[in-house]
Specification:
Quinone Oxidoreductase, Chain A, domain 1, NADP, 16 strands, ADH-like_C, binds NADPH dihydro-nicotinamide-adenine-dinucleotide phosphate, 30% helix, alpha/beta, oxidoreductase, Rossmann fold, six-stranded parallel β-sheet, 2 domains, mRNA 3'-UTR AU-rich region binding, seven-stranded mixed β-sheet
Length: 322
């Protein structure tokens, strides 16, 4: 089968399409024919060795497809079932082994591309808005990179909970998308003083929460945009890692809370995985949440997909089509 392999860590150029043996499902595992694989920022961290993996490895974590074989002891799924997953290593491939207890059934109402792109970012946006800082009606929150994969989902989920979104983006096109997703205010963070603008838009109060997946370049403004006892959810580092900080800064910012949450800890149990996946899928089926696919790439253009994502040229969700 064809798969995108990383033999040495580095830039997008290390992504190579290779012919390798099809993996075999072990006990409790499914072999799935991949209809589409989700492209995520974490894939770039794996490729660059920010989160080191033993070399060589087939890259990618997310996707959707049809079960073609089951390992011993699998009772929940059968050959032919449509499934989606957010944490099966080796998903940029024609076939991938998915642990059955990490797979979720795809409802008939969802097409393969939507299912492939929904879970990793969808469940992250779900835990950020429902668990990390549960948005209340009337809250104003700041969402950075609001036209990105995560940003569009966060903006829609905050709005659906009755919150008001102040969005940051870098271009006109991205501003239009953020507004379409529900953002009430949009700041060009490449040009403006974000914290100052946020104060002006909140009568000097600041926001209840900041969802920051950009990291190094936005962190200071995020901290300075919070209201007293607000929550800064630093969930990623698209612009680079945030340097170590003195806890006293949290006091000066107004007894604020800083957290650095990750999806795996929010879907660690089967019950949590099923709950978050179900709520994401139901919101999509009901039309209250849209996964906007901003780019579809053939498997041998995985390099281009990474270049575009890291080059800030993309909007919404990116998919690879084997
Ligand atoms: P996006 O689609 O949001 O792409 C990244 C966006 O970040 C860009 O389009 C760009 O938007 C903005 N950006 C600002 N500065 C930079 C920079 N220097 N380099 C690149 N991009 C920049 O990506 P994703 O939705 O896939 O991921 C967003 C973040 O969410 C990532 O940090 C990722 O790691 C994190 N994440 C965390 C999870 C968790 O469990 N904690 C799970 C899923 C994602 P603009 O042009 O508008 O500035």
């Amino acid at each position: 089968m064809r798969a995108v392999q990383v033999r040495a860590i580095g830039g997008p150029e290390v992504l190579e399409v290779v012919e390798i043996d099809e993996p075999q499902p072990g006990p409790g595992e499914l072999l799935v024919e991949v209809a589409a694989a989700g492209v995520n920022y974490i894939d770039t961290y794996h490729r660059r060795g920010v989160y080191p993996l033993p070399l060589p490895f087939v890259i990618g974590l997310e996707g959707a497809g049809r079960v073609v074989a089951t390992g011993d002891g699998v009772t929940e799924f059968s050959v032919g079932d449509r499934v989606a997953w957010s944490d099966a290593a080796g998903s940029y491939a024609e076939r991938v082994v998915v642990p059955a207890d990490r797979a979720v059934a795809v409802p008939d109402a969802l097409d393969d591309d939507t299912a492939a792109g929904a879970l990793l970012q969808g469940m992250t946006a779900h835990f950020l808005t429902a668990t990390t800082y549960p948005v209340q009606a009337g809250d104003t929150v700041l969402v950075h990179a609001a036209a990105g994969g995560m940003g569009l989902l966060l903006t829609q989920l905050v709005t659906a909970r009755g919150g008001r979104v102040i969005a940051t983006v870098s271009t006109d096109e991205k501003e239009a998308l953020a507004r379409q997703a529900g953002a009430a205010e949009v700041i060009r963070y490449t040009e403006a003083d974000v914290a100052k603008e946020v104060r002006a838009l909140t009568d000097g109060v600041g926001v209840a929460a900041v969802y920051d997946g950009v990291g190094a370049s936005t962190f200071d403004a995020s901290l300075d945009s919070l209201r007293i006892r607000g929550v800064l959810a630093l969930y990623g580092a698209a612009s680079g890692a945030v340097p170590p900080l003195d806890p006293q800064r949290l006091n000066k910012a107004g007894s604020v809370y800083l957290t650095r949450p990750t999806l795996v800890h929010h879907v660690a149990t089967r019950a949590d995985l099923e709950w978050r996946a179900r709520e994401v899928f139901e919101a999509i089926a009901a039309g209250t949440l849209t996964v906007r696919v901003g780019g579809r790439y053939p498997l041998d253009s995985a390099r281009q997909a990474h270049e575009d994502l890291e080059g800030r040229r993309t909007t919404g969700k990116l998919l690879l089509k084997p």
